[in-house]
Amino acid sequence: RTWENNKTMELPQTADVVIIGGGVMGASTAYHLALKGCTDVLLLEQQPFFGMEATGKCAGGIRYQFGTEINVRLSQLSLPMLDRFEEELGQPIDLRYCGYLFLLTNEQDVAAFRHNVAMQHRLGVQTEWLEPLQIAELAPLLDLDGVIAGTFHPKDGLADPNGVVQGYVSGARRLGARLLNDVEVTGIRVESETVRGVVTPHGEIAAPVVVNAAGPWAGVVGEMAGVDLPIVPVRRQIVVTDPLPEIPPDFPFVIDFAPSLYFHREGGGILTGMSKHDEPVSFDQNVDTEWELVHLEAAMQRLPVLEKASLASHWAGLYENTPDAHPILGRIPDVEGFYCIGGFSGHGFQHGPICGLLLAEEILDGAAHTLDITSLHFERFREGRQIVEYNVV
Q: Are residues 286 and 307 in contact, defined by beta-carbon separation less than 8 angstroms?
């Protein structure tokens, strides 16, 4: 289905909506626009396959445990959409509800998590507060040195990012949308502060609506339209081990919060990552082997059975960070017809389903109505109303 390899498939000259980027956000937006009756949708992905970049390189986590009301509400709408995904789209996504277990090792985090758990309870998310003895019962393989408390929610878990992207791609195509690979957008035509279309090496496409779903490249795409979007790429990396027979099937998704260290069961082994807090802004996706050693040493301290593990694979990918770790979702007021769905700061995959629907509402109905997303609009940075997400990994 790639455009380059199928010369009979001509690049359209016009579309009602052009979406730039074929990860989970772009694919979900295309599907939900088509589902609402807007079928003249054209999604352009510069890679040969959809979902290869930030979506395909993520850890696949899905959770209700967030530190702001808007993120909890997004999860309350998005995770049930993942529950229904295979039934709705005919695509299995390997849903696993193993629960997220946060480990807290300092009093500042304990105070913040107590506050956040109270907020989650108020919204109907029954996160459990755990003392060290309860954590030891739940995850006996962990070394709990320094752990003073934890939180657990059994309906947090994992899903397959590739399956979600492919499901939305197939679903959008069935509904009449066009989704093309190997087409890079090199410019956005703007006249009189209004979008007119996009420029590619294969020709221009006239369109009154352009959606920036370019993930870590969203800032670059914003510049094409003359908009300075505060979305920057930051490298993060992951290691996967060969199978470890000691890891039980119900092993939770563990997050040692202060060092941003995490691990979950993956194919009988362990997938693990640890964020480097002083990682510079860049598009570098080479594995930093020095940091990998620091990461693995910390991981073996917390999960000693990893000392027996052998490396199956490792990779680096990009987070798309904003100053307040919340996405920019909705219309960009500076340029009529220009929309953004990006900046999810490392927790976007799980919100792809609902955010695609909300953006489709914003485009077709004038405003999102399934959920009020005013707090996620671009204007918040000018108006000084950022809301900072505490539970960033």
A: no
Residues 254 and 139 sit within 8 Å (Cβ to Cβ): yes
Q: Token pair of 339, please?
A: 């929309």
Average pLDDT over residues 22-41: 98
Mean pLDDT of 372-385: 94
* Cβ proximity of 311 and 338 under 8 Å: no
For the cut 90, the answer to whether the pLDDT of residue 391 exceeds it is: no
What's the one-letter identity of residue 374? T
Using DSSP's 3-state secondary structure scheme, residue 230 falls into coil
CA atoms within 13 A on the CB side of 151: 27
CA–CA dist 320, 306 (Å, integer): 29
Tally the C-alpha atoms within 13 A of residue 375's C-alpha that lie toward its C-beta: 15
Locate all alpha helices (DSSP H) within 143-234, ordered by sequence: 161-174, 218-224
Distance of CA 329 to the CA centre of its chain: 13
Please state the pTM of the whole predicted model. Answer: 0.96
Q: DSSP strand E in the chain: where?
A: 17-20, 41-44, 61-62, 100-104, 128-130, 149-153, 157-158, 178-180, 187-191, 194-200, 203-206, 209-212, 232-241, 253-256, 261-266, 269-274, 311-321, 328-331, 338-342
If we measure between CA atoms, which residue out of 331, 338, 352 comes closest to residue 168? 352
Beta-carbon contacts of 161 under 8 Å, excluding residues fewer than 6 positions away, are 24, 51, 55, 56, 58, 60, 349
Structure tokens given for 189? 């035509």
Closest CA to 61 of 241, 273, 249, 280: 273
In this predicted structure, what is the pLDDT of residue 384?
87
Instruction: Transcribe 137-168 into DSSP letters.
Output: HH-TTS--TT--EEEEETT-EE--HHHHHHHH
State the Cα–Cα distance between residues 182 and 45, nearest whole angstrom. 6
Residue 138 amino acid letter: L
Q: Residue 342's closest CA among 317, 376, 367?
A: 376
Cβ-based neighbour number of residue 78 at 10 Å: 24
